[in-house]
Amino acid sequence: MADKSISCLVVGFNTRPLAYSLNRAGYDVYAVDFFGDLDLFPYVNDSIVILQVLNSNYNSLKDKYSQYLVQYAIKLYYKHQDTHFFLIGSGLDDDYEGRKLILDELKTSNIKSVNNDLEIIERARNIESIFEFLKSYGYKIPRSFSFEDLNIHKLNVEYPFILKKKRSAGGINVFKIRNEKELFSHIKSFEEKFFNPNEWLIQEYIEGIPVSCTVISNGEESEVISINRQIIGMKCLNSPKSFMYCGNIVPAGISKDQEKIISEISVLLTKKLGLKGINGFDFVLKDNYPYLMECNPRIPGSIRASEIALDLNLLDLHIKSFIPNQWNELKKLIKNAEIKYIATKLIYFAPKKIDKKIIPKINNLKYIHDKSESDRDIIKGDPLCSILYKAKNHLESYNGALKIVEKINNIIK
Predict the structure, then answer these.
(1) The domain defined by 7-115 carries CATH number 3.90.1200.10
(2) Strand 172-177 vs strand 222-232: parallel, antiparallel, or unpaired?
(3) pLDDT above 70: residue 192
(4) Which residues contact 324 (CB under 8 A, 6 or more apart)?
(5) Residue 399: φ, ψ to 5°
(6) Fewer CB within 10 Å, N- or C-terminus of the chain?
């Protein structure tokens, strides 16, 4: 456990899970958060919430929220300059300029960044280079090429395929293209938004089971924390996009052989990239073989489910992984950790406009987290809450979470 005097400034799209764990480990927490969920505030000493400060909504800010996260992270830092640690969650994944702005402001202070260096993040997000590296080691990878080269490879394109941004996050900007008509329809819509072909990738569609691997490292050595089943684009959760991240089941419940290859690839890439702290790797299992999809050089969205499954405070371990004399003890703790529960996390998206009057009824349900404020209606497609359910087996855990979904549906009918 951390001393009560130790503090951490956290910035991200949804900092509630991070703030919760840091607070439970004894840290004073200062947070810059996009949504400002109700259950964030009990775990922070001070916070700035983007939606509240700007009196706006997700749809209005979804294309520019990162600039506000940066702006208010700097503002909160100057308010708490004696903070010990600085942690970036989701929301600034590929905003290298924004990250640099924050880090430049912190240079003259004693605050320690517990994040990957910018050049490491850029390498980790260069999926084409990572694919080439894995191919050189004999691992199977999805066939892919830059959108710029589409005309050159035109005759080799097989439908369906995936059109995705080289740096996607949470399943946003990922599209399954079934035919030529769909392709040109997307191209037309992209061009209206100043489409840059260099930023997009054509990738073989790998149909299978989505999984992820969570790894912790000190930059040289690494340990696998958990391998997780990913829930993507789930209809009963009203996912607004086909490849939208909707939750996890931890552990994934796959074979030992599958786990072995996933662990090998994740540890190999962690070492190659020089990643530090807790990071995530996304895969799809096809014909029992894991194909890497993406590297996320930050704490993944599955972190609370992993903490519940292992009964460990992983945020505390993340920070300690940046402290050299803590690694051996941390490594031993991870190696000896055993799965104690099966944890299911589901993100419930609003299927229609949700009247603010009924939001407290949803928030009062058991197993509900990331609780929405009841001061405004929830717009269709916005995240309403998340569900965390633990049990002793996979079926009980998953079905238990789905029963909470049913209760939410009954409330909003």
Answers:
(1) no
(2) unpaired
(3) no
(4) 218
(5) -65, -35
(6) C
